[in-house]
Design goal:
By secondary structure, the protein is mainly beta. It folds into 2 domains: 3-165, Jelly Rolls (Sandwich); 185-357, Jelly Rolls, CATH 2.60.120. It has helices spanning 3-6, 15-18, 23-31, 150-157, 160-165, 318-321, 343-355, and strands spanning 35-38, 40-41, 50-51, 58-64, 71-77, 92-98, 100-106, 113-118, 122-125, 130-135, 142-148, 185-189, 192-195, 197-198, 207-208, 216-223, 229-235, 243-245, 251-256, 259-264, 272-276, 281-282, 289-294, 300-306, 334-336.
């Protein structure tokens, strides 16, 4: 089944045969699936997907932000259909974009547990546990995305049998004995939530985040002890987020409201404006500035996946592991305060608000609390 990267048919004779450019890209080709690149996609809910022989349904993959650390796997299940079971040595978080259904999760030799989901649900797939998805409708397809560290895992091991057929069970992450796995929830601190399943992140309560802008709110989540960081951000009507940059690998998905993103590299003469309505995604390149703007009436809400999870700091100071922005312009995390940004950014934003009939504005910069 996994002949491509596990059992070479002959010894390589040339450098071109010997060199593996990307095991992840080779895997996607073997899947017969499209691979979407760049730094933005306008609508994941309508993105063309291909028939998926390995699991059934349809699938597409991404390689956004010029990186192979994190990706999105876009999956569609036909009416009344299901996906074949699988388990894997990479972390995976599922978000439902359309439809309703259920996922069964289990360890080999244990009973299954099943959770029902619908549009807006967020579910962690425990590392290397078996999982199987079902469409609950007999008339409508359902579509979800999985954010994973599949690319880095496949590239690291270069062996699909190890990634997909490894028998090891991480029972500290999931076993049938964990009766409250699906409904576990503990808020450890402001903007820090440990959970495994959220029924609808479009309506979940968020905590204020004044450090990043006016009338903003955030909730960071740690799910199933994964290495994937994630948060939900709500940008109130008539406001926007300070420009910021960081390492490549983050994926920001609009899940409610109407907005746009500004994206640019240091020194770029022009900023790229990207429309961001549900379910658009932006994935900035390394050190590419990006900025979230609400141009509609009501809240603009986003789901963001990042390169590191909350629970395990990977040697970074706690504040940086949680995504706090540095005031050092040379730091790997940096945010431009409102009083230092180009005034044309706000001027253009207000023109967008005026076109949409939004009258709410930020307080003037001169008052020191914009």
């Amino acid at each position: 089944m996994w002949a491509l990267m596990t059992t070479p048919t002959r010894e390589p004779q040339t450098l071109e045969e010997w060199y593996v450019r990307s095991a992840y890209q080779s895997f996607v080709r073997q899947e017969g699936a499209p691979l979407y690149e760049g730094s933005a996609l306008e609508d994941l809910a309508t993105l063309p997907v291909a028939d998926w022989e390995r699991r059934g349904g349809k699938v597409a993959y991404t390689r956004l932000g010029d990186q192979e650390d994190r990706n999105l796997q876009i999956v569609e299940i036909p009416p009344g259909g299901s996906l074949k079971p699988e388990h894997h040595m990479y972390d995976s978080i599922m978000y439902v974009m359309a439809g309703s259904g259920a996922t069964s999760i289990w360890q080999e030799g244990e009973p299954k547990r099943t959770v029902e989901w619908h549009e807006g649900s967020l579910l962690a797939i425990p590392l290397n546990a078996w999982h199987e998805e079902f469409n609950g409708s007999g008339t409508q397809p359902c579509r979800m995305l999985f954010c994973t560290n599949m690319p880095s895992t496949i590239n690291h091991y270069n062996n699909l049998d190890f990634v997909f057929n490894n028998p090891y069970q991480f029972k500290e992450r999931y076993s049938y004995d964990m009766e409250r796995f699906m409904d576990h929830s503990k808020q450890w601190n402001i903007r820090t939530l440990e959970t495994n399943f959220l029924s609808d992140i479009r309506t979940m309560e968020l905590d204020p985040y004044p450090e990043r802008g006016n009338r903003l709110a955030v909730m960071r989540m740690s799910m199933a002890c994964t290495s994937i960081g994630m948060h939900v951000m709500g940008v109130s009507e008539g406001t926007y987020v300070t420009a910021h940059r960081h390492l490549a690998g983050a994926h920001v998905i609009a899940i409610a409201g109407q907005g746009y993103e500004l994206m640019y590299m240091e020194g770029d003469p022009e900023r790229r404006k990207v429309k961001a309505n549900p379910y658009g995604v932006v994935a900035p390149r390394h050190n590419e500035y990006h900025q979230h703007f609400n141009v509609g009436k009501g809240e603009y809400r986003m789901l963001a996946f990042r390169s590191t999870g909350l629970r395990y700091g990977w040697g970074k100071p706690f504040a940086l592991a949680r995504g706090a922005q540095s005031q050092d312009r040379n730091a790997w995390l940096y945010s431009i305060p409102f009083d230092r940004e180009d005034p044309s950014v706000r001027e253009d934003y207000y023109r967008e608000l005026e076109k949409n009939g939004v009258t709410l504005r930020l307080e003037p910069l001169a008052q020191g609390n914009a």
